[in-house]
Please model this.
Amino acid sequence: MGLEDAGGRTALEIAVEAIAGGVTMIQLRDKQAPLRQVLEQGARLRDLCRGHGVAFIVNDRVDVAVLLDADGVHVGQDDIPGAEARRLLGSGKLVGISAGTMEEAEWAMANRADYLGVGPVYATATKQDAGEAIGTDLIGAITDRWKIPVVGIGGIGADNAAPVIKAGAAGVAVVSAITRQANPMQAARQLADVVRQALK
Ligand SMILES: Cc1ncc(COP(=O)(O)OP(=O)(O)O)c(N)n1
Ligand SMILES: Cc1nc(C(=O)O)sc1CCOP(=O)(O)O
Ligand SMILES: [Mg+2]
Model:
């Protein structure tokens, strides 16, 4: 989660509400905090997730994922390659890989991704270097070609999540649609309802 606009609330506070609202996976994504703080915050988030049967994933940092005994790591095209991440993490852990083009999806599949994060589906202000919105077509093309869970990411909220699922995604990954809302629990619940409905 990026908590720049979380209204002074901590990641843990937001996560408690998000889980109560029905999220099934939480990713620790903090590119700024000192490592010691990331580890402390991560341990609290991990314990919370474990207590609720929610998957806990660390973004970028395989070392942090190992130290926290996270359920897995999410890596992008410029991060540690997925196959190397898996070697460090050991078996039984998830490796998620980002893809914004079919070529990137091919790389991710060659690196034996467990799931793909595909985006930015819509325009996003959360990730400055996300690039132009790509829409939902790539999700359809990937899920037609491979049997792999895909989550759409980028600019997704309850108002526009349904087409992402209808295109073939198994779920959606969001930051601002939960962290920037006055009531993160209600926002998560609305989003989960839309996703569940679209999956039917
Ligand atoms: C689920 C999910 N999908 C994509 C990303 C983006 O990863 P990456 O391209 O490495 O960019 P950063 O998040 O590291 O800025 C993600 N984090 N999660
Ligand atoms: C972390 C991230 N990755 C993206 C990608 O396209 O790979 S877009 C993104 C930011 C998602 O935040 P929001 O839900 O607020 O748009
Ligand atoms: Mg990354």
The chain has a mean pLDDT of 96. The longest helix spans residues 35-52. The radius of gyration is 16 Å. The pocket of magnesium ion (ligand 3) is lined by residues 59-60, 75-76, 79 (CB under 6 Å).
